[in-house]
Amino acid sequence: MSKDRTSNDVAFIRALAELLETNALAEIEVDRDYGEHDRLSVRVSRQMAAPAPAPAPVVAAPAAPASHAAAPVAPSAPAASDDPADLPGVVPSPMVGTAYLAAEPGAEPFVRIGDQVSAGQTLMIIEAMKTMNHIPAPHAGTVKRILVEDGSPVEYGAPLMVVA
């Protein structure tokens, strides 16, 4: 291995270490093949806290005396999917990064629940690799739900908001 390649590899490793620190990444895996095609493969991961499970709805039923037969229960409407990605009007994340609901700390958020938005209007910003990416409304509508918290990490395809 040449001295230039070694010094380049050391610089590359230092840059990766800095990337770990500045982006709160948990792991970076690099596979480098110096063969005929000089191939480089990089995988990064971020340790994310699992969201707290939503509490199950509690349905209070009146207590029936033991001597009476239970009243028939009316069939309920089919359960809607608990997955926010299945909601109509969901806006998915186009990238991995950190979601910000306002232009800067302390500023008014771009949108609030109940706001009317037009197509192309900025809903939030996702920071990816020190670049602030404005996330536009894909269509006009009303902001029904905001599914991420300010400053939270988001994955590609994760539901961000519901605009219907």
Number of strands: 10
Q: β content, as a range?
A: 25-35%
- Total separate domains: 2
Structural class: alpha+beta
SSE pattern: HEEEEEEEEEE
Enumerate how many helices there are, as a single number. Answer: 1
CATH domain fold name of the largest domain: OB fold (Dihydrolipoamide Acetyltransferase, E2P)
**What would you report as the Rg, rounded to the nearest angstrom?**
24 Å
Low-confidence stretches: 64-79
What's the overall geometry? elongated
Helix share, percent:
10-25%
The oligomeric state is single chain
**What is the mean predicted local confidence, pLDDT?**
76
CATH level 4 superfamily of the largest domain: RNA polymerase II/Efflux pump adaptor protein, barrel-sandwich hybrid domain
What is the CATH architecture term of the largest domain? Beta Barrel
Strand order in space, largest sheet: 3-10-8-5
Distance between the termini: 59 Å
CATH class annotation of the largest domain: Mainly Beta
| Largest sheet report | 4 strands, antiparallel
List the helices and strands and how they pair.
Elements lengths: L2 H20 L4 E7 L5 E7 L44 E3 L4 E4 L15 E2 L4 E7 L2 E6 L4 E6 L6 E2 L4 E5 L1
Antiparallel strand pairs: 1-2, 3-10, 4-6, 4-9, 5-8, 6-7, 8-10
Explain this structure.
This protein is of the alpha+beta class. The chain has two domains: 3-45, no CATH class; 84-163, OB fold (Dihydrolipoamide Acetyltransferase, E2P). The protein is 12% helix and 30% strand. It is built from one helix and ten strands; from the N terminus they run αββββββββββ. The protein has one helix spanning 3-22; strands at residues 27-33, 39-45, 90-92, 97-100, 116-117, 122-128, 131-136, 141-146, 153-154, 159-163. The strands form three sheets. The protein has a four-stranded antiparallel sheet with strand order 3-10-8-5, with no helix packed on it. A four-stranded antiparallel sheet has the order 7-6-4-9, with no helix packed on it. It is elongated and about 60 Å long. The chain starts with a helix and ends with a strand. The relative contact order is 0.15. Residues 64-79 have low confidence and may be disordered.
